[in-house]
Specification:
The structure holds 2 protein chains of 2 kinds. Chain A is mainly alpha-helical. In chain A, about 75% of the residues lie in helices and about 5% in strands. Chain A is built from 21 helices and 4 strands. The longest helix of chain A has about 35 residues, at about 380-415. Bound molecules: adenosine-5'-diphosphate and magnesium ion (MG). Chain A: Keywords: Membrane, Transmembrane, Transmembrane helix, Transport.
């Protein structure tokens, strides 16, 4: 088993990248409702804090950097964007590891932290763009750095939760006897981290990093440039380049920009992800050697070079030997630490209670302020919001259904033909990583020409972004149907209808659900972005929550912004809990093919 | 005869200077907390000592708390009450030097054989050259010369456990703990490793002063041990503790050997006499499983029960359990649940290690399959509370279904969450066989068996007309 949290088993070669991501979206709730309510209060308070900080911004001007759309600016802009993604990713990785670690080893906060994961990953990050950027600009007044920080923070927020969940659940699933071995042989926390926890979590982290970075690109392209009222917030980068190019109708620049984005995605795949996947194969927690695995020419190159393959380990041992020598004198390394030392049973100190009470008070105060903010909403605003919610909900689900309708037959056809699948699978993986937001301006230009509106446009964007996840999973599902079952179906002369209802659909069901869950998360994010769009001096819009969020952003109406975000989060969380989780359970019991 | 080789010992008799215990446990207990505020007692107050120079085997059916005991004695797990001493110092403060060989090997698959063996030395801050030298020497000792660069997954099970031994011995432990070290291996490999271990031990090749081995294989215990402790369950307690004075190498076929094995079978199947006194020291309720109203269902299949009874009938209705196990090539862990199940259902009686069939049992064993199901159903409803409750609940509900959760909640009062789940699984197994009810795994609900469901629907339709 490659990924500890994998709900269904995949053929070796076809480890879909989005699997664990989807799993974390439909966590089984094991915490009391109080925690959910408490978290809601925290989020309200946080929102209020953001908005409150952001209010100062109106006094402080931010220099606006002009964005060029000449080809010569492209390399530098790409560099900026890549750096932003890189920084956000490294931050999220570090944060995710500490978060997962804390959650897994502190029973007192575990339920809270897991519930936080569950809710925060359901909120489409793009809806937080304006308050976050405003708050950051206020903290670093009069400087581009504020916007820079805001955007990085936002991408970070989008990337971190599935990484944290992956790390957390890996830690929780480390076999008990291995943990015991590390205790009885008196490992220090340091040794345990590097020899047990990190290796055990590595594969999950690699796959989730791929998903995270893809999500990061999607958001980055969307938020490098946005307006709020008459104020422009823009950062030099690929996203703003594409936006500027489409505003001025420069098709050459658009094509060049999109090509660059694709090139970067492909290069990341070949130069970073594939070698990492191939390398992380050694961390597979599997007692037998498997026959086929992902190969990477780059990794082989590195391994063949004597210098490159031995230098890191020599450097590393130079660093770690002194550490081990020092640590061996610590208590951890001299006395066996019991595995069931019950941290929960220790009495909390009064200071802990005092601090908790203070934090609680601050949160309640912030939350009540946010509620006051909400109460400023008028009846008609609420009606519009609800209408928008329904429209967005329908659009998201229509796009899911359309994706499923075409990907099921195509995916099954591909999956039943292993040779074809081997070629298409990696291509679909790359497609899934290309940020759909980059194509959006082109798509809109086309739509405007033929007279289509944003209603179709936003569905098209959702399709563009999400159908690959489903295709990818359906192919994997079709490949997992054992060939003897297929032979039996043809032996008994099943009709086409019978074949689909008794063999194919049940066979791909778990995979299909996995793909749809992931896709629906992406589709919500896309809807925030795609329902309101300024192109040139034209404003395109269509009824929806995303539109409400964007209009509220433009007008600086924070109550609407807050209400819309709450609505979206409520819809996503309840869909996850009421629909997807049930389907998942069905997939795990009834439609699970025995391995 | 077996009594001749058995001398009862208690821990306190052995406190002489040369055999002062390395590890001494004083009235240790273990309970696990339950979500329902109850605590489940897994080990009742127990005294036990590990004395230099002996191989001590802890024997018992699965779930009797052998692993729990091993973990408390090795300092890996804190007793809920009582104390463990290492050379008369509380074990939590002592710098103890022990190793564990695990059933699942617990090797790190991403480290090579050599790195796996070096890891404990690394933790102790041994410098790289010494570390390497000691590890390579140890690999040679366990017969893994030349394999240092391999990864565990490239090795066979037996070789992996050799790595496990090398890792355990490289730190020169004073006590070597082993938790069913051979039970994941095939019979021949296990035999081979056992004799090599004995050789290392008797040649004093390893500096280890005592060995503590947990096993559920009676012959293994008698082959290896100088002293055997037999553990009973619910909660775990010592049923007998005796010395084995057979000469090495021991011959499985010799009379003293088989007598001893037979004696242990008798101890294991003898009915328990009295329940331990309930805990009176703490405020929280501690459940003693023998005072609870659900009996613990043994995880046996109805087919297994039928098979055992048929075999017994062939043997004239009465036989020694040890011989039955031998005939079936079963280990106790395979056979005891079946015997338990037959006993609960009233098909079998156990006296002094002999199983004898009851009239109902022989009726069951002699019938054809449909009649067997009927007899099983009656016996189950009469003797098994959980099955009776499930059946009654389904009958009373208007939609004839009951969620699994409902019973799990009740079982949780008494068993660990894991065990509750297993109890339900066994109940489902038995209930399906007896056609008492069915289970919908997707909805996690108990339902009427299909035949009755149709009847019920037909009746409903009639009512509607
Ligand atoms: N962490 C735990 N929580 C609750 N019950 C446990 C836990 N660990 C073990 N048990 C229970 O303790 C009993 C003894 O377990 P164990 O020591 O593993 O038995 P053995 O090794 O003899 O098979 C079992 O009934 C098991 O269900
Ligand atoms: Mg055990």
């Amino acid at each position: 088993m490659k990924l500890p949290q994998l709900p269904v088993r995949f053929p070796e070669r076809l480890q879909p990248r989005f699997q664990p991501f989807a799993r974390s979206l439909v966590m089984v709730r094991s915490w009391p409702v109080v925690i959910d309510l408490g978290l809601a209060a925290c989020l309200l308070a946080a929102f209020f804090a953001l908005v409150h900080t952001g209010h100062y911004v109106f006094g402080t001007p931010v220099p606006v950097v002009p964005i060029s759309h000449s080809l010569s600016a492209l390399p530098l802009y790409s560099f900026y964007s890549v750096i932003r993604i890189g920084i956000a990713y490294l931050l999220s990785l570090a944060f995710a590891i500490s978060y997962g670690y804390t959650a897994a080893y502190n029973p007192r906060v575990e339920a809270w932290m897991v519930a936080t994961l569950d809710i925060l990953q359901s909120i489409p990050v793009l809806s937080f763009l304006p308050p976050v950027v405003l708050a950051m600009v206020a903290l670093v007044p009069g400087h581009q750095l504020g916007i820079e920080l805001g955007v990085v923070l936002l991408i970070f927020t989008g990337q971190v939760w599935n990484l944290a969940f992956s790390f957390y659940s890996s830690l929780k699933s480390i076999p008990k006897e291995m943990l015991e071995a590390s205790r009885i042989y008196r490992y220090s926390a340091w040794q345990r981290f590097w020899q047990l926890e990190m290796p055990y979590a590595a594969i999950g982290l690699v796959w989730n990093s791929i998903v995270s970075v893809a999500g990061g690109w999607f958001a980055l392209i969307a938020c490098e440039m946005f307006t709020m009222g008459d104020r422009n917030f823009q950062l030099p980068g690929l996203g703003s380049y594409l936006r500027t190019a489409s505003d001025s109708g420069d098709v050459t620049a658009l094509i060049a920009g999109i090509t660059t984005v694709i090139l970067i995605v492909v290069a990341t795949d070949q130069l970073i992800w594939r070698p990492l996947i191939a390398w992380s194969d050694k961390f597979k927690f599997e007692q037998v050697e498997s026959a086929d695995r992902v190969t990477s020419p780059i990794l082989e190159l590195i391994q063949r070079s004597h210098l490159l393959s031995t230098l890191p380990s020599r450097l590393w041992s130079g660093i770690e030997e002194p550490i081990y020598r020092r640590l061996s004198r610590s208590r951890d390394c001299r006395v066996v630490q019991p595995i069931d030392e019950d941290a929960a049973r220790k009495k909390a100190s009064p200071v802990f209670w005092l601090i908790s009470a203070l934090i609680l008070a601050v949160i309640l105060w912030g939350a009540s302020k946010a509620v006051v903010l909400l109460s400023q909403l008028t009846g008609s605003q609420i009606v519009t919001l609800l209408e928008g919610a329904i429209a967005s909900f329908l659009r998201v689900n229509v796009s899911l259904i359309i994706s499923a309708l075409w990907t099921i037959p195509v995916g099954v056809a591909i999956g039943f033909n292993p040779k074809l699948a081997r070629i298409i699978q990696p291509v679909a993986q790359i497609f899934a990583s290309v940020p759909a937001t980059a194509f959006f301006p082109v798509l809109l230009l086309g739509l405007v020409k033929i007279g289509g509106g944003l209603g179709i446009g936003s569905i098209a964007l959702m399709l563009l972004g999400t159908q690959w996840y489903i295709l990818f999973n359906v192919i994997a599902g079709a490949m997992s149907i054992p060939s003897d079952l297929r032979e039996a179906a043809s032996l008994y002369k099943f009709t086409r209808y019978q074949r689909w209802t008794t063999l194919i659909l049940p066979g791909i069901f778990p995979y299909l659900i996995t793909g749809m869950v992931t896709a629906s998360g992406g589709a919500w994010n896309a809807s925030v972005f795609a329902e309101y769009f300024k192109i040139g001096n034209q404003t395109l819009q269509t009824l929806g929550l995303g539109q409400q969020i964007d209009i509220a952003t433009d007008a600086g109406q924070f109550p609407i912004l807050l209400a819309a975000t709450i609505l979206i989060s409520l819809m996503v969380v309840s869909m996850n809990r009421l629909v997807w989780r049930r389907l998942y359970r069905l997939a795990e019991t009834k439609y699970k093919l025995l391995a | 005869m077996p009594e001749a080789t058995v001398t009862s010992t208690t821990s306190n008799e052995n406190v002489t200077p040369d055999s002062a215990p390395i590890i001494r446990a004083e009235r240790i207990e273990k309970y696990y907390a339950q979500p329902s505020q109850n605590r489940i007692q897994v080990i009742s107050p127990t005294d036990l000592s590990i004395i230099p120079g002996e191989i001590l085997a802890l024997l018992g059916p699965s779930g009797s708390g052998k692993s729990t005991m091993l973990r408390m004695l090795s300092g890996l797990s804190r007793p809920s009450a009582g104390q463990v001493f290492w050379h008369e110092k509380p074990i939590g403060d002592a710098e103890i030097n022990v190793s564990i060989v695990f059933q699942s090997f617990a090797l790190f698959p991403w480290l090579t054989v050599l790195e796996n063996v070096e890891a404990p030395l690394k933790a102790r801050g041994v410098d790289p050259e010494t570390r390497r030298e000691r590890s390579l020497n140890m690999l040679t000792t366990v017969g893994l010369e030349g394999f240092q660069a391999a990864y565990p997954k490239e090795l066979s099970g037996g070789m992996r456990q050799r790595v496990g031994f090398a890792r355990a011995l490289v730190v020169e432990p004073e006590v070597l703990f082993m938790d069913e070290p051979f039970s994941a291996l095939d019979v021949l490999t296990a035999e081979n490793l056992r004799s090599e271990l004995l050789e290392l031990w008797s040649n004093k090749t390893m500096p280890t002063r005592a060995v503590f081995i947990v096993t559920h294989n009676i012959e293994e215990a008698v082959l290896l041990a100088d002293r055997i402790i037999v553990l009973g369950r619910n909660p775990g307690h010592i049923r007998t503790d005796f010395k084995v004075q057979l000469q090495h190498p021991r011959d499985r076929k010799s009379e003293p050997f088989t007598n001893l094995v037979d004696y242990i079978y008798k101890v294991l199947t003898r009915p328990e006499i009295a329940a331990a006194a309930p805990d009176q020291t703490t405020g929280k309720p501690v459940r003693d499983q023998r005072q609870m109203h659900y009996q613990m269902l043994p995880h046996a299949r109805p087919g297994g029960v039928a098979g055992l009874l048929e075999l017994l009938i062939d043997k004239g209705g009465r036989d020694d359990i040890y011989r039955l196990a031998d005939d079936l090539a079963f280990e106790i862990d395979d056979l005891l649940p079946i015997v338990d199940a037959a006993q609960i259902l009233g098909f079998l009686k156990i006296e002094e290690g002999d199983a004898s069939i009851t009239p109902k049992g022989s009726d069951f064993g002699n019938s054809e399959i449909l009649r067997q199901k009927e007899i099983f159903r009656e016996a189950a409803l009469e003797n098994v509370l959980l099955l009776r409750q499930i059946r009654r609940a389904i009958e009373t509900k208007s939609d004839n279904t009951v969620p699994e959760e409902f019973f799990l909640d009740m079982l949780d009062e008494q068993f660990s969450a894991e065990e509750s789940q297993r109890q339900v699984e066994t109940a489902v197994n038995w209930g399906r066989y007896a056609e008492l009810f069915d289970f919908d795994a997707a909805r996690r609900r108990f339902t009427l068996p299909e035949a009755e469901q149709e009847e019920a629907e037909a009746a409903d339709a009639e009512d509607a007309e």
